[in-house]
Amino acid sequence: MKNNEPSASWTWILLALLTLYIVWGSTYLAIRVGVETFPPFLMGSTRFVVAGTLLFAGVYWWRGIQMTSRQVFDSAVGAFFMLLGGNGLVGWAEEAIPSGVTTLVISLNPVFFVVAEWLVSRRGGISGGPNRWTWAGLIVGFLGLLILVAPSLGEGTGEVFDLWRLGGLIFACLNWTIGSMYIRHVRKPAEPMAGAAVQMLWGGPLMLVASYFAGELNGFQWSDVAPEAWWAWGYLIVAGSLLGYTSFIWLMKHSSPTLVSTYGYVNPIVAVFLGWWFLGEPVGPRIALASCTIIAGVAMVSWSKRSPSPGGEDSAEKA
Question: Measured between alpha carbons, how far is 7 from 169 in angstroms, rounded to an integer?
């Protein structure tokens, strides 16, 4: 499907990318600090209600909001996959997984994006597919993930992680990709900022329902939330939602998903450094090796789209 959005200045694209690179790298630390005393789904619910309300009010005051019922529905679908299934599971996983390791697993997102774009192109009748570099990158990335989780599979030495939480992170990547590609390829998309606001307003109630069924509200007292968790919550509203999420939604309408997904290269570096600096999270040789391996695999997959496929077809994005 052709993207009918008008082209955007490379200056704005670069600024939006830098926002994703730096800001989203820091949000994993904020989530980790927050979920120590703030139930993850409840924290996400309140965060997105506040952020969505502020953004909706700002866009409405600036230029008004006009959305069809279909666009509101599309926003709900995006919120279900991206906010509930993506961000919600990340918060849940970070109750037991260090922020640096979390963003390292999330860095596999570009791989999901490349495969998703290929599937969409194939459905649209565009020939070509993953080339040798794509498959090599997938293998290298998977090897890096195995290095990361190896001690958790048995009695090995080193940091051992909860496999259910790690699986939740991988499922979060899948959900985020599904939601992102859905929003990108809808027939008549909403204006990006208005769409982002409505997605967050959908995400709040969806995550509140998840919080209820997860038992987070049983015996919960607002006084249990530590001051640093409230600071993290506020930072996630401003930096994670109002700056980061809106930048992502805007980029998905004005740039290539493969280019957008390159935030996966930088976020782990930012998150690992911040986790080590502020929380003393360990960064041993195994995690360093896994980091290099996964990022190398992700880079190979993304850059493979510039290389011709074995059949001679250019695998560059055509959707």
Answer: 33
Give how far Cα 221 sits from Cα of 37, 49, 105, 231, Å.
Answer: 10, 19, 32, 17
274 CB burial (10 A radius; 0-12, 13-18, 19+): buried
Helices (H), 35-151: 40-63, 69-78, 89-93, 99-106, 109-123, 132-149
Give ∠ CA 255-256-260 in degrees, rounded to 5: 85
Cα–Cα distance for residue pair 131/173, rounded to 1 Å: 22
CB of 126 closer than 8 Å to CB of 309:
no
- Eight-class DSSP state of 187: S
The dihedral built from the CA positions of residue 294, 298, 299 and 301, taken in this order, carries a sign that is positive
- What are the backbone dihedrals phi and psi of residue 3, each rounded to the nearest 5 degrees, phi first? -90, 110
Q: What is the pTM (predicted TM-score) of this model? A: 0.79
124: how many CB neighbours lie within 10 A of its CB?
Answer: 12
CA gap 265, 184 in Å, rounded? 22
- 308 pairs with which residues across the strands? 314
Q: Using an 8 Å Cβ cutoff, are 108 and 296 in contact?
A: no
Which of helix, strand or coil describes residue 314? strand
Residues 264-295: pLDDT tens digits? Answer: 767 777 777 788 788 787 777 877 887 788 77
Task: Tell me how crowded residue 112 is: count the other CB atoms within 10 A of its CB.
Answer: 22
* 88-136 confidence digits (pLDDT tens): 999 999 999 888 788 778 877 777 877 787 777 776 555 556 677 777 8
How many other C-beta atoms lie within 10 A of the C-beta of residue 218?
8
User: What angle do the packed helices 99-106 and 132-149 form, to 10 degrees?
Assistant: 160
Q: Which residues contact 93 (CB under 8 A, 6 or more apart)?
A: 102, 162, 165, 166, 168, 169, 172
Q: In the chain, what's the furthest Cα-to-Cα distance?
A: 63
